Structures are given as structure tokens and as C-alpha cells.
Amino acid sequence: MSFGVMTYNIRMDTPADGPNQWHRRKDRVVNLIRQCAPGLLGVQEALSQQMSDLQSNLSDYGSYGVGRNDGRDSGEFSAVFYRHDRFELVDKGTFWLSETPDTPGSRGWDAALPRICSWIKLRDRLTGKELCYFNTHFDHEGNTARRESARFILTRIQQIAGSTIPSILTGDFNTGPQSDAYHTILSTDVLKDAKLLSESSHSGPQGTWSTFHVASGIGDRIDYIFITPSHFKVLKHAHLTESDNNYYPSDHLPVLAELAYNS
Questions:
Q1: Domain range holding 147?
Q2: Taking the CB of the first residue and of the last residue of the chain, which one, N or C, has fewer CB atoms within 10 A?
């Protein structure tokens, strides 16, 4: 009855990446996802064409996401994917991490860019349970924006899922475990860090920011999976280091957790 959850910043498609531009590495990203076969997947930084590539190559998955600039197809997506054979889509939505969360393209607090959280409500075909999955990408510059984004996401999770529906939050939070944003997420006991709850020892390096080059080493831990501990137990947790010719498929490591219901 367990299932995998993966969060993966796949790095936007930009010519500035040269030999690591998307068209040169997209097959490696797809193959890694297929190999891990998570039940749920959240991606960050995906542009519209990247979403098309993922959707056409991951036929076992349904997906939902919108571009952060206009709520349609402009700008980066924080999209969610779910396996058809395990989950049925019940509801979906996106809100902006700002003081006007239902205004497409809005920026919040001291954020440099518009930021979003996309979510889906699913029915688990094996258990009949409903669950909610939220996926986000916090601002890279605004300290206040990250903290307030964390606070607002907790509020929205309570509004959408309440206390009875199992919930998962994943994403690139652009900040480490010592930060205000991280501690804000953990402050209410609604969500806990899956890495800290894993029944098996964490696998892989401690950090998730990698650059494309294996030789550069691993930087901070900024990508996370959070779960409602009253509903889930964490069987395994890993930061994946698959590489090819000393290059990673993206400039972040994917994070993978295996979850099971508490009852």
C-alpha cells in the first residue's frame, strides 16, 4: 500500500546552460523518473515545452500545473504528476504566494519573482482514501517572502485539506533547515520533515543543491518533502545522485520518500 513521492527541480530550459540545456538532458530526467516510478511527483522550474516533454514521455501519469506569470502557460510551473493506476483526480488548483493569492502573476512581500503553489486532491484507488498534494517553489531572494509563503501555505492546507485529509507538501524552498521559513513550516505540528521521520536511515548526501557538475560537490539542503505525521509514516528517504559522465540530469538532486498510511 506504500507509494513513492518525489520532488525534483528539473532546471528551466535556457540556452545559457550550453551542454546542459534541456534538450540534451531531458531523456535522462525522464529515465530517472521512470526508474523510480513514484506515485506522486512534483517538479519545479518546468516551462511549458518542458511540461509537454514530460507529459508525452510519462504516459503512466496525469498532471496538473500552470505557468506562474499568467496562470496559464507563461513562466515556470510548479506542477504535480500522479500515477493513473494508483490515483484518481478529484480537485486541483493554484494560488500565488503573495498578499493577493488568487491574482495570477502577483508577487508577495520582498520576492523577486512571482511564486506559486499548485495542488491536487486525489482518491487512492487501492484504499479509497483521499489525500492532498501541494508542490511549490519559494523565492530565491526574499527572506520575508519565504517565511510568509510558508505561513500562508499552512493556512491554505488547512482550508483545502483540513485536519482529516492526509497531506503532502514538496518543493524547492530555496532555504536551509536553519531558516525562518523551514521552522515556520514545522511550527504548528501540521507538517513534519519526511527526512527526520524516516524509519530507514537517510540515503545520499545531506544537501540537494548540486549544480550540474559532480565535481562541484553538494551544497545546501533546500528541497524537501513534508507530510502530515498523523496520517503517514515514512519508510525511506533519499537524495538521489544518479549522474552520467560526471554530470547530473539537473542542478538539483531529486528527493524521494516512500510513504505508507498510518492506518
A1: 2-261
A2: C
Return the C-alpha cell found at 22.
534541456
CATH number of the domain enclosing 252: 3.60.10.10
**CA 3/CA 67 separation, integer angstroms:** 28
In a 3-state reduction of DSSP, which class is residue 27? helix
SS3 149: helix
3-state secondary structure of 91: strand
Please give the order of strands across the beta sheet that includes 255-261: 61-64, 77-83, 40-46, 3-9, 255-261, 232-239
**At residue 179, what is the residue type?**
S
Contact between 10 and 224 (Cβ < 8 Å): no
pLDDT tens digit at each of 263 positions of the chain: 999 999 999 999 999 999 999 999 999 999 999 999 999 999 999 999 999 999 999 999 999 999 999 999 999 999 999 999 999 999 999 999 999 999 999 999 999 999 999 999 999 999 999 999 999 999 999 999 999 999 999 999 999 999 999 999 999 999 999 999 999 999 999 999 999 999 999 999 999 999 999 999 999 999 999 999 999 999 999 999 999 999 999 999 999 999 999 97
Q: Find out whether 204 and 257 touch, Cβ atoms under 8 Å.
A: no
Place of cell 502530515: 228
- Asked whether 226 and 234 are in contact (CB, 8 A), the reply is no
Question: How many folded domains does the chain comprise?
Answer: 1
